[in-house]
Amino acid sequence: MRRGRSYRHLVSGLLVLFAAQAQAKAYLPEGLGDALPPLLQLAEEQNPELRAASEESAAAAERVQPAGALPDPMLAVELRDIPADNPTLSPSAVGSTRYQLRQTFPLWGKRELRSAGATSAAAVSQAEREALRLTLRAKVKTAYAQFYTAQSSYRVIDGIKWLALGLQDVAQTRYVAGLVPQQDVIKAQAERWSLTNELIGLEAERHHAAGQLNVLLGREPEAILALPKALPALPAEYLRPYLLQVALLENSPLLAGMAAQNQAAQSNAELVRKNRYPDLTVGLAPIQKGNRLDAWDLMFEVDIPLQQETRRAREREAAAMTRATEARKQALRNELLNRLNETRITYETLGKQHTLMVDTLLPQAELAYQSALAGYQTGKVDFANVLDAQRQVRKVRLDIVKIELDRYLQLVELERLTGKDL
Questions:
Q1: Whole-prediction pTM value?
Q2: Domains of the chain, first to last
């Protein structure tokens, strides 16, 4: 009975493993996906959200010229003294026909202020598009790093599985020789199947990361990608806080967009203030009687600014909105500088931890495992200690992979904040 159950468990595990291996065939050994730069270029070309933002930015730029243009002129035709006994719409058959052409001229620099407001709005749209582009690049880099990390973790676990296989052979040899109980062999087999289960989970993570990457590229989630070869190299030199701050203040599209919003609010406030003064409308009206032009009318029209309290309220509103955008700009500046500082410190801390793990903890864990394995082979160490040592090697190696991912993601955030590749 036990042998039958073990056989069924073995077959089930092999089927799951074969399914994972079949799923891995969705990846190519090399091609699109094995390096980051082509993915970034493709994302900027094909991502539908970025394309939409580009079209919106182009639309905002087209609003600048109409904002400062003169309003369309008005033409009116007035038929006077239409005969009651013989109604007609013929200009020559009525008492007189008056043709009126009217044009409004905004004065006091209002057209320039409207154009300036539209220009600032276009700058806001362009800054939003740039912020979206940087965010998209950060998302692509993150998905690529997660794709690579899943692959790296897969290789780590696969290597540990071979260690477990060797440990199982040692336990089997000593069990056959009657030196250890069968329980050691069973534990070794259980450890191998546990590692196989981890490999299946990591294959699913790899598949999810590839799907997310494809979506960012504007492709179908199941489109074929090559396995990533390596993460981009991290900066070899120290990231100077002052230089990072200067880059953020100069390049951040979020700050540029907020500055453009503030400029638009200032233009609007000045335009509202200029609305105290009326625009001028000029009208010219030739008068037709019969088949000839008999006279001309010339008209000048202005608004009478009687609703002063309403105008003052609008001016106070515009001034308050200007002060609000100034306050938001300062708040955003402080928030981004703080986020930049926190990200830089985290990046440096992870670098120190990575050095400690690679140079100290991993060699110690591997040495401890070799020592425990040698002790087990001579009967001085029990099997549980060997398993613990093996698991410690696995933990340290996976921690190194995770720290490499976390550190790279901090660099990605620094690049997004500063608007430049570091």
A1: 0.77
A2: 20-418 (1.20.1600.10)
